[in-house]
Amino acid sequence: MGTTAATAATPAPTPATDTLPGVESDAELLERLRAGDDKAFVLLVGRYHRQLVGVARTLVANDAVAEEAVQDTWWAVVRGVERFEGRSSFRTWLFRILANRARSALAQEYRSGSVGSGGSEATGAAALRFDDQGNWIVPVEPWEQDAVDRLDAASRSAALVACLAGLPARQRAVVELRDVAGLPGDEVCELLGISPANQRVLLHRGRSALRAALASEMGGA
Amino acid sequence: MLLRPKNLVCEQAVALVTDYLEGALTPRDRRRLERHLRGCPNCGAYLEQIRMTIEATGTIEPGDLSQEAVDDLVDLYRQWRSEGPDDR
Q1: For residues B28 and B48, what is the distance between their CA atoms, to the nearest angstrom?
Q2: Mutating which of B37, B47, B57 best tests the A interface, going by the most A Cβ atoms within 10 A?
Q3: Count of Cβ atoms closer than 10 Å to residue A205 Cβ
Q4: Is B17 part of any domain?
Q5: Which of A27, A79, A134, B46 could form a cystine bridge with B86, CB 3.0-4.6 A?
Q6: Which of A115, A139, A167 is the C-terminal boundary of a domain?
């Protein structure tokens, strides 16, 4: 029986700033927020606001509605921080709130057909080169972990962000929620109202495109 | 060996990568894919690249907010706090 790739689990996304030495963790900031420290609020906002807006924009078609959903989310954080028990990570809690805030607007937009009905989903997948037997035409060069790490974080982020921005809306929504925000698959399905199989198709296309973006950032193909 | 499933070609193996990482393959398809991966350095490298991509995507830096946006939110924060505890 095969054991080569026995650990098939997706690696958990690492929060960008939460675990660096000298940087306060989310839990520490929440503790300060409970004490009414507005600097802690500024730090949390600085950490997550952009991401929330990015995800919200994939959930609702209208930028104004997205901004409102994010603002409602921060409101709910301030009001709910006393009740947050830390059973899930702050990040999960935060995106779950956003999901709830966006849900009704999202449902309306899906019903009206303004989101996700586009026929361009297939174009998001990066074209890989196979011959007519289905074999690679050009060998795949392994990436050294070093090479990925050596790309400075800013340019790596910029390449990924640019790629994400160009993905069809539903692919982007799935990748943002799964791989950027770190939400589990079942929650993402529920949030977007899609089947697990559909979610995997969108995730597959989105990740393929991101891989290609990273590859070209490293000078490969 | 009459019913031994056909070997996957690379294009098929690559198409199964996400379902594999999601744990969504049938045991039979998983075995077929793993057998292919053992014999194919290209597809093995591809799978590893996808794993590294997922990891890198999880570390995207959100970028700096404008001072104006921060100020607006802090104003809202003070306003919310002054409204007292949430009873809703």
Answers
A1: 22
A2: B57
A3: 23
A4: yes
A5: A79
A6: A115
Query: Could you say which residues from 51 to 110 on chain A have a Cβ atom under 8 Å away from some Cβ of chain B?
Result: 51, 54, 71, 74-75, 78-80, 82
Query: Is B29 in the A-facing interface, judged by CB distances under 8 Å?
Result: no
Say if residue A196 is in the same domain as residue A179.
yes
Whether the CB of B87 is below 8 Å from some CB of chain A: the reply is no
- Chains A–B, number of C-beta pairs less than 8 Å apart: 179
Write out the residue range of the structural domain in which residue A99 sits.
19-115
Both A129 and A216 in a single domain? yes
Residue A180 contacts residue B57 (beta carbons within 8 Å): yes
**Residue pLDDT, tens place only, A120-145:** 333 334 567 888 888 998 888 888 77
**Residue A7, domain member (yes or no):** no
- pTM for the complete prediction? 0.66
Reported residue count of chain B is: 88
Q: Judge whether B55 lies within some domain.
A: yes
Q: CB-hemisphere CA count at 13 Å for A86?
A: 9
Query: Would you give the distance in Å from CA A187 to the centre of its chain?
Result: 13
CATH classification at residue B18: 1.10.10
